[in-house]
Amino acid sequence: MSRLLSVVKGSYGVLRVYLMILVGLVAIAFFINLLLGIGNINRNSEVSSGNIVTIFLLIISGVLPLYFFKRIINLGASRKEYYFGTIIAYIFWVAAFSVFNIIWFLLEQNVFIEYKSYFNIIEIFGWDRYGVIGMFIYQFSTYLFIVAFFNLVFSCFRDRLALGIYILLAAAISVSMSISSLREAVFKGVAILFFNPTILPSTILTFALIGLLFMAGWFFTTRREIYK
Amino acid sequence: MGTILKCTNLAKSYGTTEAVKNIDMTLEENTIYGLIGRNGAGKTSLLNIITGSIFQDYGEVEIAGKKINRSEDIEDLCYVKEKILLFNHVKVMELLEIASAFHKNWDWDFAKDLLKMFELNPEKKFRQLSRGMESHVGIIIGLASRAPLTIFDEPVLGLDVIMREKFYSIMLEDYSNYPRTILMSTHLVNEITKIVEKIYIIDSGKILLHEDMDSFRNKSYYVTGNRKGVENFIEGKNVIQCETQGNIMIAALFDTINDKEMHNARRLDLSIDGMPLQKFFTYFVDGRNHIE
Amino acid sequence: MKASFDDIQPIFQQIADMTEDHILNDTYGEDEQVMSTTQIAKTFQINPATAVKGINLLVNEGILYKKRGLGMFVAPGAKEKILTKRRKMFYQEYVVKLLEEAKKIQLSAEDIINMIKHESEGY
């Protein structure tokens, strides 16, 4: 267990700079806009800071497979420890940002609304229909899905086998987008996964896919070669 | 004595280049080994395969009796690469803390001593370190982990002569108190001749020779004298290099010379001197390349 | 004390010779502790297994003995043993070589004896 924790700790060591920069920039932008709102200079609606800061999740799903992987193995971790530790880190950050965005969303709805209105993903996708718990579940499963997806993309970065999969995927996406009946089916699928009013089945389905993505990521992680 | 590492018939190619060609290697417990070869001889490729960083095309690696596979942890191993990868923004101390979790024999007291001995400030961030100091971090991890199989790839590359001497002394002392197997690759051949117990010589992906240093000393000689005498003396012996200057001949031998032959040589007015490993290495590897 | 080693003899042999020299010149007396193999390894930067081999050579000849947990000590009568051994070697190692060299540079046995006499008077 302490070995996994060490992986998580190491990942934080690598990530904290990105987190600080991102939080700093978003906070500055937020306060400037809020002040403009209070001073009645600019009352246009803004994208929620709670959403912008969630970009961090995209950063970690790139930085961990691309930058952190070699380094932690260099220090003595096994691939398995790296991978499980990384998944723990993903789950932690996804949960943290889901909770943060809920708090932020409630603040926006109840406090900042006096001066400014915001677009928050929770409202746009209707994730607020089951209260706070619902907001968490919708966000958590959606964010984790995205993280698992990018984790896979970056874990098979240089793999020849993955190149084939990339090409197939790109072809499948462009074909399904250009044929209108297929396009509708794709949108329906996405809606079932992430915006479905019946929360339980869609969440279970999403988690099954997340599991699949992480398993595929593991497959490629065991194939990665570290030269330097 | 038990075996800590056993490689059988390892091979690895990158495209059409064969980096490792059918290598067999068996390392015993509690022994210091030197892996010597020129730059690009395949040292790092071999070590990367042994430690599971890259994968062999065929062949097997066993560490402490366990076959290594792609996912499992190699418990008894500590691998210090030639260049420890930069962990930007992480302090030296944090890095050691992370590394310590992965090594069951890690000794913190020793690690702290090492920090002092290598004049490293643990509060420094990794990006502020010089090339030499980065090497020191790798060396500290390699030594403090006290892993039953510790592998150093070119450990002294970024070190000045004082730090190199320090490293050898500290390693030898700690090894006496906590014996383990250390495999050290290097191209600084002369520096390790007294330090290692056994050597492996690698060139173009093949192990050319492995030998006990003591028995190596017992069979690597220069024979110098008048041409006829030397020619007579070296007949039937394994000569790896021969040079003639007028009537003088110098032959480099890789063969044993018994007492009677020694006596004979003296009578023939031939002088017999020991040959340093570096010279042997040069003749041996270079000579083979000419033949091939 | 010797600080470096030559290339012709195995290092463990040189370690043994060096320790014998220390006993001969009374650096180590009887029942006194000699350098541990760890100290030897560290001081001369040699492999500890080599140091152990050298010291064991002397243990086998009864020149050193081991006290469990304490280290290596000079055996009683060690100096005598070394003297006997070295005297035996002296003829082969020095006299024969001396005469060979003398022959090469055309010195007679008499010349050599005179030299020795002359040198000894200095002492």
UniProtKB/TrEMBL annotation, chain A:
This is ABC transporter permease. The chain crosses the membrane at residues 12-32, 52-70, 82-107, 136-154, 161-179, 199-220. Keywords: Membrane, Transmembrane, Transmembrane helix. The keyword Transmembrane helix applies.
TrEMBL record, chain B:
The keyword Transport applies. Residues 5-229 form the ABC transporter domain. The keyword ATP-binding applies. One of its GO terms (molecular function) is ATP binding. Keywords: ATP-binding, Nucleotide-binding, Transport. It comes from the Bacteria. CDD domains: ABC_DR_subfamily_A. This is ABC transporter ATP-binding protein. The lineage of its organism: Bacteria, Bacillati, Bacillota, Bacilli, Bacillales.
